[in-house]
Amino acid sequence: MSWFSPRAGLLALSTVLVAALLAVAATVPLPYVLTLPGATADTLGEHDGTPLVSVSGVPTRETDGELRLTTIVGTLPDSTMRMTDIVDAWFDGSEAVMPRTALYGTSEDVQEIEQHNQEAMTESQSAAVTAALNWLGLSADEVSVELSLEDVGGPSAGLMFTLGIIDTIGQEGLPELAGGRVIAGTGTIAPDGTVGPVSGVPLKVLAADRDGAEVFLLPPAECGDAEATAPDGLRLVPVSSLDEAIDSLIALSSGTGSVPSC
């Protein structure tokens, strides 16, 4: 003799419906992109045989160490992300899933996105030159600065380009900023030297560590995200301005003075 429980029947039906919904969700395209640690590039060195920072009109100096900008790479905006991809990335610490709009904005046109990112990089480089020359007390009439980096877009290299320009030109009494170390970082730069927030910091931390960085400069607002992936031995230094970044690097090189930490 068998007994049928209405409650058991509802539970079984609910289980079937949940399983069906999960099965459908696993195949439905979602508005996310997969991101990975990208390349880093030394603003005191060359990329594909071309100096990242070229200066004419004033003397320059040889420097020891590296000042590396960091990048992330992402799947194309028209690529398909499904729930299974998101779950896989969740358990893989070297990958991250971001809303498509966070990386590419609202456009899904690849050429339009590439143009937007290149324009953002151009504006960032212009701001980096202005901020660096202002800090050095130089004018664009007496010095020419050219910045070169192919296949990278967006504004987040601004801080490291600015530091690269300053360290390349130097000034009397200013020690080398890299100080023989591998310094990496990220952050936008405004012409007045203000450092702004960026995206993808946890992955940029991984890229910096992969390429031998000892110190990572970042906007203070990104400390929490950076700490999530920062390995032992990589020092996180939050800076909100160009002055703070330079003071921190000088203090690290000299071993004197205070250096902020996440």
UniProtKB/TrEMBL annotation:
<dbReference type="GO" id="GO:0004252">
    <property type="term" value="F:serine-type endopeptidase activity"/>
</dbReference>
<dbReference type="InterPro" id="IPR027065">
    <property type="entry name" value="Lon_Prtase"/>
</dbReference>
<dbReference type="InterPro" id="IPR008269">
    <property type="entry name" value="Lon_proteolytic"/>
</dbReference>
<dbReference type="Pfam" id="PF05362">
    <property type="entry name" value="Lon_C"/>
</dbReference>
<dbReference type="GO" id="GO:0030163">
    <property type="term" value="P:protein catabolic process"/>
</dbReference>
<dbReference type="InterPro" id="IPR020568">
    <property type="entry name" value="Ribosomal_Su5_D2-typ_SF"/>
</dbReference>
<dbReference type="GO" id="GO:0004176">
    <property type="term" value="F:ATP-dependent peptidase activity"/>
</dbReference>
<dbReference type="InterPro" id="IPR014721">
    <property type="entry name" value="Ribsml_uS5_D2-typ_fold_subgr"/>
</dbReference>
<dbReference type="GO" id="GO:0005524">
    <property type="term" value="F:ATP binding"/>
</dbReference>
<feature type="domain" description="Lon proteolytic">
    <location>
        <begin position="154"/>
        <end position="249"/>
    </location>
</feature>
<protein>
    <submittedName>
        <fullName>PDZ domain-containing protein</fullName>
    </submittedName>
</protein>
<dbReference type="GO" id="GO:0006508">
    <property type="term" value="P:proteolysis"/>
</dbReference>
